[in-house]
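batch_manifest entry 22 of 60
target: DNA-binding response regulator
source organism: Pseudaquabacterium pictum
requested by: lab member K.T.
priority: normal
notes from requester: please return tokens only, no post-processing; we will run our own comparison against the previous entry in this batch. if the run fails, retry once and flag.
--- input ---
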Amino acid sequence: MISVILCDDHALIRRGIRDTLADAADIQVVGEAGDYAELRGLLHSLRTPAAGRPAGCDVLVLDINLPGRSGLDVMHALKDEGSTLKVLVVSMYPEDQYAIRALRAGAYGYVNKGGDPQLIVQAVRTVAQGRKYVTPEIAQMLVESLTTPTHENAHDKLSDRELQTLVMIASGKRLSDIAEELTLSPKTVSVYRARVLEKLGLQNNAELTVYAIRNGLVGE
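--- output ---
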């Protein structure tokens, strides 16, 4: 039996994934968390066996866009802690935005929330075996990165949090909204915004939005 933890700040999304996985006889959801703090507490509790529940966990199904620490931050923290938990990222962001970053951060796979729900079942089974799960789109991206001359986009130089801030600003969110959603102070978000502007050589939010659209980071 593959034991799975779901970590997503939207209860409805967790329910949808849980219901999808419930149809698989070899997969059991043993816990849910809405952010990193809840996840840490859950992982601690799972170290002790309980009736009808196995100790530990095989796969963590993780969202990128979490309040406080992002999913990428969570993966870095788990790696620093020496965790052997296999992470499957399930995100609303298209593969070309975060898939490669997620894999570099230690994820075993990346699935878009807008895809076929059954892909999540297949992905969980794959990563539980210690194998990488990538969609054909990601595989194509990886092949192109190996067979074409290296060309680094300006936004590739951004940190994970800076890229997240860029995408949220370009999606029309105010700094106060971003601060609330990420559980950060408005001042901290302003610092991230300033770093993004500096690294990309831009002047204001309008230019950030145009840059994000032209580079496929957000839809038009």
